[in-house]
Amino acid sequence: MKSLLLTLTLFLSLATVASAQKKDKHAEMPGSEQISEARVAELTRQMCNQLHLNEAQYIRLREANRIKLSRLDEIQWQYKSEPGQQHAKIAELEAQYEAECSRILTPSQLSLFHTQQQRDPEPERPVTNEGGIG
Fold first, then answer.
1. Domain annotation covers residue 25
2. Partner of 109 at 20 to 30 A CA spacing, among 8, 28, 34, 46?
């Protein structure tokens, strides 16, 4: 009976330690497990409204958007201290995303997609005041 109790206590303590380590991993890399469904839905809904997608296109594009946003978060976290490498990886991701979109969208939708992307401004970068006054 004592050996059973001791074994059970050992397994319980190992499970607790493993759980704590997993929580530490999530604290180090927030958002790495799953991308927000709201972000994926909003992006796909906007594209659906602009490009007039059918249901099959919507489903395929939703999955492509999920992968893109997830990978984008991962790249931004992984290369946050290397901006040059980060931009290269993001450009590579964008090229892959556009290739996937070209398989999903019709030529007229693809043309509209490229026009829309050229109109959308790039997100502004925070201004740093390194070495300056203020």
1. no
2. 34
Segment 24-34, tens digit of pLDDT? 444 445 554 56
* pLDDT tens digit sequence for 84-101: 999 999 999 999 999 999
Question: Which letter, b or e, does each residue of 68-79 get, where b requires 16 or more Cβ atoms within 10 Å of its Cβ?
Answer: bbbbbbbbeeeb
Give 48's contacts (C-beta < 8 A, 6+ positions apart).
58, 61
The Cα 71–Cα 90 span in angstroms is 9
Residue 134 lies in a domain: no
**Domain coverage including residue 96:** 32-113
pTM: 0.63
